[in-house]
Design goal:
The complex is a heterodimer. By secondary structure, chain A is α/β, with parallel strands linked by helices. Chain A has twelve helices and seven strands. In chain A, α4 packs across α11. The model of chain A has no long low-confidence stretch (mean pLDDT 95). Chain B is α/β, with parallel strands linked by helices. Helices cover 35% and strands 19% of the residues of chain B. Chain B has a seven-stranded mixed β-sheet with strand order 2-1-3-4-6-5-10, with helices on both faces. Classes of the chains: A alpha/beta, B alpha/beta. At the A-B interface, α5, α6 and α12 of A face α2 and α3 of B.
């Protein structure tokens, strides 16, 4: 399963779009135009992009906070993301939730929640349903070291293993869970070791080598789709920013950070594209100019979007909610008649 | 399950064994392992899988072997399922059903009435049937609902609520209380296994000339305030009865609602008869003292009627 030159060009565009979109978000954050925290994926782009790239149309993906690249690969538009982080009325979550917490079911994108590990069994349930409905769907979701400490992860992977569900969990080993270093998060030598206890297959890949990630992810997806059960794919990468923009990452060793900055996945892929003669600097510059133009338009469009207007009746909690709506509205004005 | 192929079941020991209380007996043979799924001991993952399956078009029904164990799935229920429609516009049509309640000497971890934990979570519905016809009719409504429903079956009623079920579909809509007995002197508002107790008390009170109206809430969230308020406006006296502990129980919510909406009609303080704020003890003698009983209920009702 080699990655053709055309596919490599597509991968490059996804990687660069992820980074440039994130830079736009940094700018919006500094201007006070974003709502909530900015959780950057700087340095991890190849992991999210490469794994999502291995999925096929109709497959399902639930990203977590540093998987911006995966959402873009699945077809979320930059303007969707920008509206979402600015909590606009026409954002996918309509201002009711932020960042990557949104669903675009027509693109196979579903939302995680902030509680880590919960998506594992939810995606397992999705592919369980699809199997029952006669579809050969593969589901993919992501976790870091912290997420693999949760009971939700262990329950979910155990259930998926017993049911032999086509689930790929990408373990993004990025060195820190908020401020907690990996050795304080997990006693096992690798996250992939956790697979053995459940009779689940696993592999470890260099998460900053996008072509290696794509190939490993394709093997994992093929394994799952063939009915062999779940697969844990550990991608070794590094979180080059703090947990969120407010976190100055004082707990990080400067040498370690410098070393991983030298291993930047996009610069590395650019060197490969040069060496392999797939895209020269001029061709890459053209891609960058094209993305810049797209993002200029997307930022303008998102900024012009209206803020959501509070609904005086607080609708949308349940489908059939006539009585509850009445009660919520009454309660809001103090219950006096 | 005959009517709708999208209905699947997930739970512990629900297959060959037929469920700890035999609620799923025979269903594996009839519908097969694709629809009756025995799971490992993974309450959180069962609810998570049900959420995921519902997002892909199925109608999963989860059995909590004992409803106390829903604590293990609290995150999935209150954070994932309950908030999903509001956040994303996509409903999560799942039912989580199972035995709750005390009275069978099962101690502090197999006897709880956890409805209060959930009935204050926007996005959920919480249903507690008290009759066999309601158990069937409300469960059908719960499965056909577009959003998550918690369905608490009082284990004491499994063998005691006996009746010949009416012909037909028998769906009982969620959110509508039932007036089980009409009366003019006071209103007893209750649900679940306390309904037969309230009816026993009402029959006893009637011998002394006190006519109690008995309201069976059936659904705790959304609650049928109209029926409760209308009854109390008629009788002017309210006695709130539940098996769950007192503090911040369902009765507290009803009392506040009556203070807001029926204050001028009240001729007496709103009274609560509940279990005390303690864990549920194991020994039969201790449990009997813990549970609201007929004599306590009668004393409270007479005090209220005489106020």
């Amino acid at each position: 399963m080699t990655t053709s030159p055309e596919q490599q060009k597509t991968l490059y565009r996804h990687l660069l779009l992820t980074r440039l979109l994130e830079e736009r978000m940094v700018s919006l954050y500094r201007q006070g135009k974003m709502t909530g925290g900015l959780f950057r994926c700087l340095g991890q782009e190849a992991t999210a992009v490469g794994t999502a790239f291995a999925l096929e149309e109709g497959d399902l993906l639930v990203p977590i906070i540093r998987d911006l690249g995966a959402t873009l690969v699945r077809g979320a538009r930059p303007v969707d993301i920008l509206r979402q982080v600015m909590t606009k009325a026409d954002a996918p979550a309509r201002g009711r939730d932020g960042f990557l917490h949104f669903c675009l079911p027509e693109k196979g994108l579903y939302s995680a929640i902030a509680m880590l590990g919960t998506a594992v069994s939810v995606v397992a349930g999705m592919v369980l349903a699809d199997r029952y409905l006669g579809k050969r769907t593969v589901g993919m979701t992501y976790l870091g070291e912290g997420g693999t400490s949760t009971g939700a992860f262990h329950e979910g992977i155990n259930f998926a293993a017993v049911q032999k569900l086509p689930l790929v969990v990408v373990l993004e080993f990025n060195r820190y869970s908020y401020s907690t270093p990996s050795e304080m998060q997990c006693g096992a030598a690798t996250l992939a070791d956790k697979a053995a206890g459940y009779g689940v297959a696993s592999a470890i890949v260099d998460g900053n080598d996008v072509l290696a990630v794509v190939e490993a992810a394709r093997r994992a997806v093929a394994w799952a789709r063939a009915g062999n059960g779940p697969f844990l794919l550990e991608c070794k990468t590094y979180r080059r920013k703090g947990h969120a923009e407010h976190d100055g990452q004082a707990y990080v060793d400067a040498e370690e950070l410098a070393e991983w900055t030298r291993r930047d996945p996009i610069a590395r892929f650019e060197r490969h594209l040069d060496a392999a003669g797939v895209m020269d600097a001029a061709a890459r510059e053209a891609v960058r100019a094209d993305i810049d133009a797209e993002l200029d338009a997307a930022v303008a469009e998102a900024e012009a979007s209206p803020a959501p207007v509070p609904d005086p009746e607080f609708r949308g909690v349940r489908a059939d909610e006539e009585a509850a709506v009445r009660r919520r509205a009454e309660t809001f004005v103090g219950g006096l008649r | 399950m005959d009517r709708d192929e999208r209905v699947i079941l997930l739970g512990e020991d629900i297959g060959v064994y037929g469920g700890a209380f035999k609620a799923t007996a025979g269903l594996l043979e009839r519908f097969g392992p694709q629809r009756v799924i025995d799971t490992p001991v993974v309450e959180e993952a069962i609810v998570g899988a049900a959420i995921g399956a519902s997002l892909r078009g199925l109608r999963p029904v989860v059995e909590m072997q004992f409803f106390d164990f829903a604590a293990r799935a609290f995150d999935m229920i209150t954070n994932f399922a309950a908030k999903h429609r509001y956040r994303t516009g996509l409903g999560v049509p799942i039912v989580i059903r199972g035995p709750s309640g005390a009275g069978v000497h099962a101690g502090p971890f197999h006897s709880q009435s956890p409805e209060g934990y959930f009935a204050r979570t926007p996005g959920l519905a919480v249903v507690v049937p008290s009759t066999a016809a309601d158990a069937r009719g409300l469960l059908k409504a719960a499965i056909r609902d577009e959003d998550p429903v918690l369905f608490l079956e009082h284990k004491l009623l499994y063998r005691r609520a006996k009746e010949v079920l009416p012909e037909g579909d028998g769906v009982v809509p969620l959110g509508k209380a039932a007036v089980r007995r009409t009366g003019r002197d006071l209103t007893i508002v209750t649900y679940g296994a306390m309904v037969p107790l309230a009816l026993d008390a009402a029959a006893e009170l009637a011998k002394g000339g006190i006519e109690a109206e008995v309201i069976d809430l059936r659904t705790l969230l959304p609650m049928d305030e109209e029926t409760v308020v209308a009854s109390v406006k008629k009788t002017s006296r309210a006695l709130l009865l539940h098996e769950d502990a007192r503090t911040l129980g369902i009765g507290a919510e009803i009392a506040a609602t009556l203070a807001e909406k029926a204050f001028e009609w009240l001729d007496a303080p709103v009274l609560r008869v509940t279990a005390p704020d303690t864990p549920i003890p194991f020994a039969p003698s201790l449990e009997a003292a813990y549970l609201p009983g007929l004599s306590t209920l009668l004393a409270a009702a007479r005090r209220l009627a005489a106020y």
